[in-house]
Amino acid sequence: MKSVKAKYLSHRISWLFTAMFVLIFLLLVVLTFVAVHNEDYLFFVFCGYLALGVMIYIHYRWIYKPYKESSKVFRLFATGYTIHGLFGQRVFFSPEIEEVTNKIQEIMNTDELFNATKKQAQYLALQNQINPHFLYNTLEGIRGETLNAGLENVAKMAEALATFFRYTISNVENLVTLEDELTNVNNYYIIQRYRFGERLTLNVEYDTENEIEILSYKLPKLTLQPIVENAIYHGIERKIGNGNVNIKIETTATRLIVTISDNGVGMTEERLREIDDKLNRTTLEYIKPDSEAHSGIAAVNVNNRIKLLFGEEYGICMYSTSNVGTDVEITLPLIKKDIKERNEK
């Protein structure tokens, strides 16, 4: 049976170099015995060993080490742990491989992938081909009728729902201010309060002395609400007693850090490891139609959108303890300008 490894040129080249070095070494050993026996040509034998050592060193630095680095990058890319690393290799296997890599980079253009993820930001109204304007015009009509009937609570709920859908469906590709995101989260909270009542509370923490500056920082639209939604449906809904969702906003010299915490049921270590594995991989599986989540945009989707926009050093980290709660830490660059303006400069 033909060896599977024999079909790879890298293995064939490796075997060829190994065989060549072994033959040269054996030849030097034979020459050494002859030189010692005749007590002659010892200098030439020494030069032979020195030349072999230099060849091995050059092979290690110029061939073996770059090969292992490139192999590691391809392996990480194949398993979904890196995308950008594929395009930053120091040495390529061949000019053709470099051309293929550049072509992949063109195909996997960040803007194109980011646009592909927009469909994950479309809720059931858009997925079912319902005209978004028809949706919130209808909700506004319901609000007007309930106000005329004196049903103020129903009117407030319809207003919050209309505002929420208008924000969710319109211009998904744009960066928005943190203030806009928090307003959308608050509208979502108002809607959920009609279901959970006093059982559900939402708190937002940030440095009030720098409120205007903090609220002006920009981030991708629909970054916070999906995480809050997960906290409510997967944490607090299954909890007996009151549930609290806390949003803590912190900044460093270069980063915006938003931590969304809940005191829900938490998750097991096994489940947390599964989610961490998905968060650590940059994959396109989450934009496939058969994996769309109808309950909202998943944390994996948000994480991938952040990484595609800003780089792999940003994204989501999740911490959870069963029967205690879950913390979701979102790390973003500290920016006030639109990403397109930033890229042009």
What does it look like?
The protein has 345 residues and is of the alpha+beta class. It is built from 13 helices and seven strands. The chain has helices spanning 9-38, 42-78, 95-107, 110-117, 124-127, 132-148, 152-169, 178-196, 211-216, 225-236, 269-279, 299-310, 339-344, and strands at residues 175-177, 200-205, 218-220, 243-251, 255-262, 315-321, 325-333. It has a five-stranded mixed sheet with strand order 2-4-5-7-6. It has a two-stranded antiparallel sheet with strand order 1-3. β4 (243-251) and β5 form a beta hairpin. α4 (110-117) runs antiparallel to α12 (299-310). The longest helix is centred in the first third of the chain and has 37 residues, at 42-78. The chain is elongated. Mean pLDDT is 76; it is low at 119-131, 286-297 and 338-345.
